[in-house]
Amino acid sequence: MTKRSERTQAKPLRILTTGIMLSAFIALPAQAEWLKAETQHFVVYGDTSEASLRRYARKVERFDALLRTYYPIQTDHEIPKLEIFMAEGRRDMNRISPGISEGVAGYYSPNSGRIYTVVDTRSSMGDVVVFHEYAHHFMFQMKANAYPSWFVEGFAEYYSTANLTDERIQFGRHNPGRVNSLNMGFNTWARMEDVLKWRISDSGRFPAHLYYAQSWAMTHYFMSTPERTQMLRRYLTAVASGEDSVVAMQAATGRTAAQLQDDVWRYTSGSINVTSPQIPVTHPEVTVSQMSKAEADAIWLDVRLDNAPIKLPAEEEAEGDTQSDAQKARRARDRRQANENRAELIRSAFALGERYADSDVGRLLTARAHRLSQRPDLALAVLEPSLGDHATNAKVLRVAALALLDQTESASSIDDANELRRQAAAYLARAMDAEPLDFRIYLGLNDVRRGQPRYPTDNDISTLEVACTLAPQSFDCRTRLGHAYMARDMNAEAITILTPVSNSPHQSAYKRRARQMIDQARQALGQAPLEEASEPEEPQDDIGAPDTTSDARPLPAS
Hints:
alpha+beta, Serine Threonine Protein Phosphatase 5, Tetratricopeptide repeat, 2 domains
């Protein structure tokens, strides 16, 4: 591979601004004909020309090929394809995520409703966002995926600025925004101990943008030479085995945290290596098909409905006593807005569902709106025409099963509830036959069984293991499997499956719960609990965050 030097120059950091919450626009149908492009690892949807869609699909497939060149993933199963939705500017971004900030050029959603990525194709940072987020998606498929938080972000930042064309592949370029954060002065940097452990320093809270920047800088430093990459490999192996991050880093590098910070500072103050690897430029096969009018009109509603919780989470009263008046007011405002968005989503789904009432698309829109309205009985009734003995629409079958499960709590007897579960399991079995790679079907089967006698059985464990194999990015999958493992005294296995959740750079209820569960499992094994570590303000993958650099070497596979 060949390299060229690129001097990092500070440029103004783009600032996120808060968008205005929108409402009535969602019901508007798409005005053009949507196309769907499929490659080996992606399904890309776009309201664009076939030529543009093909170019984009080839680009993201080439990025996957680049990662697999350095980090080959050996699997004995087919990997589900990641969906990418091409949003044409702010109007589309607000259609899929009402009120999204103006500066957001895209995002990645690995939750249990649907795993997908959205990119604003009119943003200059669109590719950076998609590559950053796909690097996260890809990392979870790697055998050794229990990486420390800083490297989770550093890895994604490192590869996000890749440039992929029909003629060449290049990566390792800097991101002006990240470099701007680093160039504010050495004294503004967070202490390396804090970055390695992601915690609040003695001097106070450090900003998230600096965490991203220093994570990128440290990753770039270690990837810059084979010797440093070997150090990184030793460090990651030690941390994965449970060693303290700061101790492991000094053992691997022979440098204290302060010395390492000085090394990284000097490295980023000069020229950085940009790599043009001598690997063939792939020309991926792309299959393009036209979506139906109903599918096109429902494109954004479909995703939003998949991600909307059937019941809004209850207020966390325990936090109320410690919150300031401003925090309480902000939470109340956010909750009101969430309720308004939910009401708008239900109205829009009913309206478009009525327009296409005689199709599976329309019935699914209406059925999911009924579920959000707490009327699962009506949801099931709407889907009835699509549930014949020969029905093969996996989504219809799965939503019907969920509507049955919704009714178990209000069933008049245990026998009635069990009959609802039996019917739901039958629909899910048919859905699995039609679409065996949809992890949500296996989570549905787990919903049928959770809380029932003898749970979890060997079969329950196997079902969740399949779900996590298909969707290792899903924290819900991992948390459920962790619970099942611990119920069977498989505490070491629980720690392994939960550690990537615990190490997530982003704050969430899943992360807090994973750390609690790991401590319980460690206690059962006679081990010390995890170190308490506060975190900086929640980072946002703003404009598409990172910067990437490369002399990449495969990471340890253990």
